[in-house]
Write a structure and sequence with these properties.
264 residues, mainly beta, 0% helix, 10-stranded mixed sheet, 8-stranded mixed sheet, 48% strand
């Protein structure tokens, strides 16, 4: 059974807002060793694998939101230029929205995943009501629960914030699922007019979230998150909000995805 990703808004779940924001502490990457480098000089992607660095579907199958995530074709939904990935969301003549998602493992679990460490995306987000870009992690072991970390998900109508969330989806009884989240304030428009970094560090005790490498929130690490996690990024649409005025097309630009482990 596939678990709905990215804050499944209609799922009964214990959802708790964080009251513990942090500011000022910078992450020191000189204390880390890089383990994953994607600088988008080119894009190695297929619809479902195997054998490519990225696949263009969630590994467990299905879609979410108002846009269907489609396999790569020439010029859509992914293009790369001068080390920048562009993900395009487009409404076709049939009225259907299509867009792009990348996952770092295939349906068999082959690909990049990592237990603990620091994960970071540098990106410029699309403006407009209805856009729903995200950078997130999922735990490899989904036998009883799905461990999810939304480093960033942004709803375009809320220009002055984005949300970070830690989910534990209970696969046998969804009413036992639980989540904690933090709404991170930013200057309105700053997510669209410049590139920013969005990062998360995970260790056995804490999950810490960073904006431009400055800590903005932390929460305790659930038991289910003490496992290897893989990377996803996407330009979704909707997420419970109208797409009636969403710009067509909309573009998300990604400079890089990096992952690190602490040095011994």
């Amino acid at each position: 059974m596939a678990v709905l990703p990215i804050a499944a808004l209609l799922m009964p779940v214990l959802l708790t807002a964080s009251t513990h924001a942090f500011g000022g502490e910078q992450i020191d990457l000189s204390r880390f060793t890089r383990t994953f480098t994607e600088d988008f000089d080119h894009l190695d992607v297929s619809a479902r694998g195997p054998g490519t660095r990225w696949i263009a579907r969630v590994p467990w199958g299905g879609n979410f939101g108002r846009a269907a995530f489609v396999g790569p074709t020439s010029g859509f939904p992914f293009t790369t230029d001068n080390g920048i990935l562009r993900i395009e969301a487009r409404q076709d003549e049939d009225g259907k929205w299509r867009s792009g998602l990348l996952a770092s493992v295939d349906p068999s679990g082959q690909g990049f995943s990592q237990q603990y460490g620091y994960f970071e995306m540098r990106a410029k987000l699309p403006p407009g009501d209805g856009v729903w870009p995200a950078f997130w992690l999922i735990g490899i072991d989904r036998s009883s629960h799905t461990a999810e970390i939304d480093v960033i998900e942004h709803h375009g109508h809320a220009q002055g914030r984005y949300t970070s969330t830690v989910h534990v989806w209970d696969r046998s009884d969804r009413k036992k699922s639980r989540s904690v989240y933090q709404r991170n304030p930013v200057p309105p428009g700053s997510l669209y007019d410049r590139f920013n970094t969005y990062g998360v560090s995970i260790d056995p005790t804490w999950i810490r979230f960073f904006f431009n490498r400055e800590e903005v929130w932390r929460t305790q690490t659930p038991d289910q998150h003490r496992q290897p996690m893989y990377i996803l990024l996407n330009l979704g649409l909707g997420g419970g909000f109208s797409t009636a005025s969403t710009p067509n097309p909309s573009y998300m630009y990604v400079d890089y995805i990096h992952a690190y482990l602490p040095k011994e």
